[in-house]
Design brief:
The chain is built from 32 helices and 27 strands. The protein has about 850 residues and is an alpha/beta fold. It is elongated.
């Protein structure tokens, strides 16, 4: 039964049976449980075994009176709270006072009134119930407090956080068990503030005292310090709050002590990793620059010199490719150890990255004091190495920069100078050193300032790629896209490559930019492949990249990083002018790339030698005709002839051809007639961001004229060139009419190039029997006559003839009208030329004997 709902148990103790019966009957009628006892001793035993809710106790009983029974009840801790009501015939005040003195709660005299007894019983039962409830609540609260205290202590132990309290008036200090453990002091040891100070690490006592003084003045107390061993923690963080009296004097402090040993150890590890190379344990670039700044400051103070040696391994990429990356890492470690052994006091070595190291040489008295340590490092690197049982050997190229110089110098700039000098040492043949010459650098200082801006743009992620499509001219099928770099400058907006790429010529940053372009292009190909768009990308390669010995191994790694991209999806465009610098090397490079499955194209063809020997040595699959020739081919015979010659060379060597800068439909049509296969340019599409490519592909279709035009036979190409010559004549005539100075006088009909071709015996032999040719000859003669008349009329109506200045040339109505007539005649002549090229009447073939 639930104790809260059970009927109260009442014990009646009286030696008179009649009284027992009367009270038993009276109480049971009210629903109480009643137990009757005629002797006090029996009642005490029963109460100890089963404590009642209330006791009705007679006073005068044999052996033990009621006073003694009550006294013993109150002496028993488990029974002392049970309410006792005395019922006695003794009505005098002394006995009542004695009853209350023994612990009685109430007193009823006999003979009693039943209603009075029941009322007093109910009242004291209710009071007892309330008392018991309060006791239970108090016990529950005490248990909860104990549990929470135990939880707090466990939490402190788990979290390694202790607590403490300090009485500033007595200096008495109390610690929680965890605080004792953290400070390495036996738990329960009496403590004062001095005991705490003694446990602070000697090197940190000054800092702790400073923070403590500030806290006594009302500032927050939050300090990290070490603990003197032996201790449970190496580092702790102390935080506290102070209580102040009305006079502003501190009297009590409550604080926590947190174990931060693991945090400090992790911070130390992170700090080491931040400032050191994980592989070799040497300082990294950031730490080296910090050391270099200190050394430069000391050099200025002591008026001594220093030098920075930038070391790059020759042939490391080949070893890495042959033996694997793990062996390459082992090689780096061994080389780092050798260099560390070769440096002396006041010489500081660091690994800058990859296979590059740097050393600062301090305390130099003479400008060439760097020479001996540099030669020592070259010798140390060149000693044979053992890699997995195989002997390997590498050499180093070292660049040296010196300090001080005539201009103020930052550490980063000094290191960069050494890097540039290292690159020149590598170009000079490797296994040697080169000293940076600041006098030669003076003329390019502004250039390097701009280069630094480009470098920062690359580091800040401001570079992006745009993509321009390349298509087959006659079918319109998309061959692929050329990846073109753009600079999203924060102030200048989208910057085209012509405004910053030329700055990088022969500068090491060109390699970094080129690598970024390749990696970004390959990543875009991977995204397109994943989206179901399978195409190809071409990337321009600068001459400096071609000379980089790590170019091919790095490209292999870049392709491996994008496994979904096939090598044949990438094409590298090599500048013709860049390839001329070292044709044999570029030829071998192209062969290596072909072996990898990577295609190559010769870019801007026509701007260099463009010789048969050149094409024979460089086995690039595609020739790209430079846009400078394509732009002018419609009305510039020289440009048209160059385009035609390049196309002829390409056919002779069975190479594909692609024309750049195709800006109009007419350009594309003429290229088809000359036999060009592919094109790119604004009339197809401007360069676009990657996200615009799918929409462009969905709407692209080639101009109908490209699809209906065919390549000309070799014998009909002069007709096309005649059309170009005529456009050039019309352009020159218009310029003369507009009064442009220096414009040559257009040729007469028998001296211009078209007229000369029309009069050639071979021309008349091939086309003379065709009526269209006779019409063409007549149109040409008429046009020249009209042109001469028009020029004479314009001269006669000019200012020198007394006419108003605003009515000469094409501003004169009569001249303008005559010019429009000439234009109409020109259109008819061009139509005749085109008709002759497409005539159903076959021209006569010319034998070699003729």
């Amino acid at each position: 039964m639930n104790p809260a709902t059970a009927s109260p148990s009442i014990m009646v103790v009286d030696d008179t049976p009649a009284n027992l019966r009367l009270l038993d009957e009276l109480l049971r009628q009210q629903g109480y449980q009643v137990r009757l006892f005629p002797r006090g001793a029996l009642a005490l035993k029963a109460a100890a075994a089963h404590p009642p809710s209330l006791i009705l106790l007679d006073i005068m009983m044999p052996e033990m009176d009621g006073f003694e029974v009550c006294r013993q009840l109150k002496a028993n801790p488990s029974l002392k709270d049970i309410p006792v009501i005395f019922i006695s015939a003794l009505a005098d005040t002394d006995n009542k006072l004695k009853a209350f003195a023994q612990g009685g709660m109430d007193y009823v005299t006999k003979p009693f009134q039943e209603g009075e007894v029941l009322a007093r019983v109910r009242t004291h039962l209710a009071l007892y119930a309330m008392q018991q409830a309060q006791a239970r609540q108090k016990a529950d609260l005490e248990q909860l407090v104990n549990e929470r205290t135990a939880d707090l202590l466990r939490a402190q132990q788990v979290a390694h956080i202790g607590s403490w309290k300090l009485d500033l008036r007595t200096q008495a200090l109390s610690w929680s068990p965890e605080t004792y453990r953290l400070f390495g002091v036996p738990e329960g040891t009496p403590l004062t503030l001095n005991d705490f100070v003694d446990k602070v690490h000697p090197d940190d006592q000054g800092k702790v005292a400073h923070h403590w003084t500030l806290a006594l003045q009302g500032q927050p107390y939050d300090v990290e310090h070490r603990i003197a061993p032996p201790a449970g923690a190496a580092w702790v963080r102390q935080r506290a709050e102070f209580a102040f009296d009305t006079d502003g004097q501190p009297h009590t402090a409550w604080g926590t002590t947190q174990d931060i040993s693991e945090i400090k150890a992790h911070q130390a590890q992170v700090d080491f990793m931040t400032h050191h190379d994980v592989l070799t344990g040497l300082p990294n670039r950031a730490q080296f620059l910090d050391l270099l700044r200190v050394c430069m400051a000391n050099s200025s103070t002591l008026q001594t010199q220093l030098a920075v040696a930038y070391i790059d391994m020759d042939g490391f990429a080949a070893i890495n490719a042959q033996f694997g990356r793990e062996a390459g890492n082992q090689l780096i470690v061994q080389l780092g150890q050798r260099l560390a052994q070769s440096v002396r006091d006041r010489q500081y070595l660091a690994r800058i990255g990859g296979d590059e190291f740097a050393v600062v040489l301090t305390g130099l008295k003479n400008a060439d004091d760097y020479l001996i340590p540099v030669q020592r490092m070259l010798a140390a690197v060149s000693k044979p190495l053992n890699l997995h049982g195989t002997t390997a050997q590498v050499t180093a190229s070292i660049g040296v920069s010196q300090y001080p110089q005539s201009d103020d110098m930052e550490a980063e700039q000094l290191l960069r100078q050494a890097d540039q000098a290292m690159y020149l040492a590598k170009l000079a043949g490797k296994n040697r050193h080169h000293v940076f010459d600041p006098m030669k650098d003076e003329s390019t200082r502004e250039r390097f300032m701009h280069i630094e801006e480009v470098r920062q743009g690359l580091l800040q992620g401001e570079m992006c790629l745009y993509y321009q499509p390349k298509v087959w001219l006659t079918s319109g099928k998309v061959v692929g896209f050329e990846a073109l770099i753009r600079w999203q400058h924060p102030q200048r907006g989208l910057v085209l490559p012509g405004q910053f790429i030329p700055l990088l010529e022969q500068h090491p940053l060109a390699i970094q930019v080129g690598n970024w372009v390749i990696e970004t292009a390959l990543a875009q190909l991977a995204r397109w492949n994943a989206e179901g768009l399978r195409t190809g990308l071409s990337v321009n390669i600068e001459s400096l990249q071609l000379q980089d010995p790590d170019f091919v191994p790095r490209l292999a790694r870049q392709l491996a990083d994008q496994p979904s991209v096939e090598a044949n999806q990438l094409e590298l465009e090599i500048l013709e002018t860049g390839a001329l610098d070292n044709m044999a090397h570029v030829s071998r490079l192209i062969a290596q790339l072909h072996g990898m499955g990577v295609a190559c194209a010769l870019d801007d063809f026509g701007t260099g030698y463009s010789s048969l020997t050149f094409l024979k040595q460089l086995a690039a699959q595609t020739i790209k005709i430079d846009q400078s020739f394509v732009h002018g081919m419609l009305d510039d015979t020289e440009h048209a002839s160059i385009v035609n010659s390049v196309l002829g060379l390409a056919r002779s060597f069975d190479r594909h051809t692609l024309a750049e800068g195709v800006e109009t439909e007419a350009h594309g049509q003429m290229l088809v007639e000359l036999g060009c296969e592919m094109a790119q340019g604004y009339t197809i599409a401007r360069p676009m961001p990657a996200e615009a490519v799918p929409a462009w592909l969905a709407q692209w279709h080639p101009p109908p004229s490209w699809q209906t035009t065919s390549a000309l036979e070799a014998g009909d190409v002069p007709l096309l060139m005649g059309e170009v010559e005529h456009r050039a004549w019309m352009k020159a005539t218009q310029a003369r009419l507009a009064g442009q100075q220096g414009t040559p006088t257009p040729h007469s009909h028998d001296t211009c190039r078209l007229g000369h071709w029309l009069d050639k015996p071979t021309t008349r032999q091939r086309y003379g029997h065709l009526s269209a040719f006779q019409t063409l000859v007549q149109q040409h003669s008429t046009l020249h006559a009209l042109g001469a008349q028009l020029l004479q009329q314009a001269t006669a109506s000019g200012p020198e003839a007394g006419h108003p200045a605003h009515q000469h040339g094409l501003d004169n109505p009569d001249t303008a009208s005559a010019w429009h007539h000439l234009q109409a005649q020109s259109a008819e002549l061009i139509a005749s030329l085109q008709s002759l090229r497409k005539s159903d009447e076959e021209p006569l073939s010319i034998s070699s004997a003729g």
